[in-house]
Amino acid sequence: MSARRSLVTAALAGSTLLAATATAPAMAGGFGGMSVLRTAAAGTEIRVGDIAARGTGVVVGWQENAPGGTKRVYVKRSTTGGASFGATRRLVDRQSREIQVDTCDGWAFATYTEQWGSDWRVALDRLPVSGGVDYRSAVTIDRVSRHPDVACAGERLVVAWFENVGGTWRVKLHARGVNDEAKGDQLPEIDLDLGPGDVNEGLALAGTGDHVFLAWFDGDDFKFRRWDIGPGPNFPLWGAPVAILPDLEYGRDPEIGVSGDRLVLAYMNRADLRARVSTNAAASWGVESILEDMPFPSEVGAYPTSADVIGTRIVVGATIVGGLFEDFSGEGFLVRTTNDGGSWNRVPGSTKSDGQVVGAYRGTAGSPKLVEAWDKWIADPAVDKLRFQRES
Fold first, then answer.
1. Domain residue limits, the chain
2. d(CA 376, CA 159)
3. pTM to 2 decimals?
4. CB-CB contact of 360 with 7 (8 Å)
5. Nearest-angstrom CA–CA distance, 301 and 103
6. pLDDT digits (tens, 9 = 90+) for 188-247
7. pLDDT digits (tens, 9 = 90+) for 16-27
8. Which residues contact 114 (CB under 8 A, 6 or more apart)?
9. What is the distance between the alpha carbons of residues 304 and 335, in angstroms, rounded to a whole number?
10. How far apart are CA 370 and CA 374, in angstroms?
11. Which CATH superfamily is domain 35-390 in?
12. Three-state SS for 187?
């Protein structure tokens, strides 16, 4: 997910905005009532960052922008599939931003950037979904880094980010053991420099028990990489071939969701929300689908904010936004496919006006249930709230 937006400068067009009901009644097989995860102090903006779910565990991460420029990142965790949440957890006292989360093995993982003097460093927190001891560590120790992402991949925990090296933005990848302590002193650490990347166009990382996938842009060039998790005791990352995708002159903001060998790659291109699906771990891809067809060139766009896969079900969170300076309008929503991209449809009850939405699947492949969190940043209310709902 990516909360950064700089493109919007004209009236929203080509989309019907649906207002979210403040407290929706429970629907069999649909979303239940809305709950408020966080109410910010007056004048503080909430930006939903990311959501992750596995089984009955759900983790939501977000950023709060207070008056005067102060930024902080937070998480909430649930062990009941989102029926209830624990206390709000601020991850660090210093300036922090750009949070992304994942969950596996009973842990919630959060990566973000935090300010140290003139540097913005990548930090990684490992928190138990319920009880236990938290661990926190620095992934980088100098330079300026931006937009990290985190993924569980079998025995490996992987973080990727942009790092400014000598005035050039480069894509970095770090892997350690999922169950290592803060310094990663059990499995050997792996650090890779993957070459240049466009920090303004975003990156996306996802993992399974067998694979790691990373997507980013370098100008017009679209980059997609896969690594396979090698055997113990060191569980190395082995590079694997992938199908080459066309370059995207106007592409940006990728999101990846994966389960087994099935994965979805969503992105914005020419202001449209688009996606491709692979059922063989990116050895080949299905046709490109346009999930939201937006006018181009124009100052309105549809971009993905999250992506998830469980069994044969795929869901993409997305936002449409446009506006003149601060006079924005837009909506967030979830769109899904159950036939590997043959058709896509908005999830009933998922569309929220004036904000950004992220979504994921909880439960099992045999009984998948959606969870959704959203903000109201487009509306810029006097008091911001982070809201949540789940399928019953």
1. 35-390
2. 28
3. 0.90
4. no
5. 30
6. 999 999 999 999 999 999 999 999 999 999 988 999 999 999 998 899 999 999 999 988
7. 332 332 333 333
8. 92, 94, 95, 96, 120, 121, 123
9. 10
10. 13
11. Kelch-type beta propeller (2.120.10.80)
12. coil
